[in-house]
């Protein structure tokens, strides 16, 4: 018995077959994010293999070798459907789902399905209201990583969207599109009178 419905909901995940939280170091999956965080401390304590290219450390020589493919560009895993190549077998496995239509991750709230556990996790924040991504500059929180990235440009001053007509720059693509109408004279709004 539980005093709070929210505690029961968390507890029920222990019994659920779905485990949307996957460790990026060893691919072990967990039903709760907190359990994943505890598990990841195991890796943090034993990372002793260092990449000489970027100084990132790993718990095993195998994990280091997988990482080094980022720098070498080696992609030994090839999709038999479209010839696209991948540096890790897990990335190929996820990619193949595009061709097969397989969506093994199901939302427990609305039953929408996803190819990747990360996509499910992001989607579920719509239902839970959970804001996993925190701005390091002002502590504002976001439910989607893309929204955090857009927000951070306020602090950094980054303006990656450049007008091809006058070289003016913008921090969001929507602002660039609105601005470019000055040059193209595109008028989207028509008076009905």
Automatic annotation (TrEMBL):
Keywords: DNA-binding, Metal-binding, Nucleus, Repeat, Transcription, Transcription regulation, Zinc, Zinc-finger. Pfam families: zf-C2H2. PANTHER family: GASTRULA ZINC FINGER PROTEIN XLCGF7.1-LIKE-RELATED, ZINC FINGER PROTEIN 142. One of its GO terms (molecular function) is DNA-binding transcription factor activity, RNA polymerase II-specific. It is found in: Nucleus. Belongs to the krueppel C2H2-type zinc-finger protein family. The lineage of its organism: Eukaryota, Metazoa, Chordata, Craniata, Vertebrata. Residues 21-48, 49-76, 77-104, 105-132, 133-160, 161-188 form the C2H2-type domain. One of its GO terms (cellular component) is nucleus. This is C2H2-type domain-containing protein. It comes from Cyprinus carpio (Common carp). It comes from the Eukaryota.
